[in-house]
Amino acid sequence: MKIKTIIHNTIIFSGEGRIHGYVAIDSDGFIAEVGQGDVPQELASDTDDCIDAAGAWLLPGVIDEHVHFRDPGLTHKADIASESLAAAAGGVTSVMDMPNTRPATVSLEAWRQKTEIARKSSAVNYAAWIGATADNFNELAGADYSKIPGVKIFAGTSTGNMAVGGDELFRKIFTEIPALKAVHSEDDAIIARNAREACSRYGGESLVPVEEHPQIRSRQACLECTRHLVELQHATDTRLQVMHISTADELDYFTSGPADSKRLTAETCVQYLWWSDSDYTALGAKIKCNPAIKSAADREALRQAVRNGVIDVIATDHAPHLPQDKVGGALTAASGIPLIQFSLPMMLELCHAGVFDVETVVEKMCHAPARIFGIDRRGFINKGMHADLTLVSDGTGEPYTVTANDVISKCGWTPLEGTKLHHRVLSTWVNGSLVWDGKQAFLTGKAQALEFKTDNL
Fold first, then answer.
1. Which of 442, 419, 453, 448 is nearest to 125 (CA)?
2. pTM
3. CA 236 to CA 243: how far, in whole Å?
């Protein structure tokens, strides 16, 4: 076995505590050895590339199971090539792309076409969700869920032709499709009523300020939809994940414990742990997303739910728009935030502030996605795993300020501009190949399609 790369003098977050040691990567892109202390001389002498990490932290590559890379059909905003490079710069080594592209990924042929684009252009490992519609049950039934992470359902919220309504169809999908179901949970009727009332108060759609966004896409809209979906999950015992939870109220429907032991899991996103509704004044539509970012009390409840195991996984819902799309108010500016390049540094900044410990961040962004989705040999730093790794600074140096020039996403902007962060992503490897060196991201051709275990569906 030829050792290609050794990363040594590093603090390794393996899932079994922190160790000061080294990781050896073989020529096939797998972790060949994880050791404590100094590298054995016989190992170092026969290695092509021996990297002294100077005490930096070595983490498993982040697995972001909730991204919108806009490819195909919306590639003026973003594409798989550009956003996967941004992912690599952010320490993200695997992504799962959502189906609301053009055309929507609601057929097996559309799924194959998107996967082929990713095969040719992604810098990081990839998978594509298939979306449910009112009339594509046969497509869902014919899908291979060892290659597809699951079925995305927009419950009550219309995204193109992807609204799924009616308990009969929900029950049919829940009981007959052997896949994890991921749900965008907001009640469309409540949102529509709130929007009408806001238009009436302010004198027209274009006059409703962005600060009204969390009142229009309200906690009630989230709570009522989530309550109903959880009742259906309990009745059918399907594997269900409620995505991007934004309210304290919804947390009552979930339980703590190991993510891989649950049939019902909860995801939140970095933005709900970082900002609150008080930030709309300064950032406006830059932080407008669906569901809306809500109160500081909601943010604190979500943080506590991360700490106590009620929230199982943290993703980004990375959703780039061009700057001109983000101009306007609550009912006119586009919803979505580009975050994938900065999500890990943001979460580590919360560790720096004492909100979380690093092990919790690694659990929610690396280990738990691998466990929940049954991702083959990824998400951990152990012998025999794919060498998906990211090296980050330990946060003891001077903070740096995020600028627009740092942004790799095609949209060219970030709501983090001007923010000081203590942790940098220094290097990222995908299947043992360097894809980010701290200054530049690379397309190596080594990215792979993710594979999923299906024995617990």
1. 448
2. 0.97
3. 19
* Alpha-helix runs per DSSP H in 309-416: 343-352, 358-362, 368-373
| Residue 39 DSSP SS3 | coil
Asked if residues 143 and 125 have their Cβ atoms less than 8 Å apart, the reply is: no
**Cα–Cα dist 294/288, whole Å:** 11
Alpha-carbon span 260 to 368, nearest angstrom: 7
Residue 171: Cβ within 10 Å count? 14
Q: Is 419 helix (H, G, I), strand (E, B) or coil?
A: coil
Nearest to 361 by CA among 253, 270, 252: 270
Q: Express each pLDDT in 46-65 by its tens digit.
A: 888 999 999 999 999 999 99
What are the tens digits of pLDDT across the range 361-402? Answer: 999 999 999 999 999 999 999 999 999 999 999 999 999 999
What phi, psi does 180 have (nearest 5°)?
-70, 135
- Dihedral sign computed on CA atoms, order 336, 184, 155, 297: negative
Separation of alpha carbons 135 and 115, rounded Å: 22
How are beta strands 163-164 and 57-60 bridged, if at all? unpaired
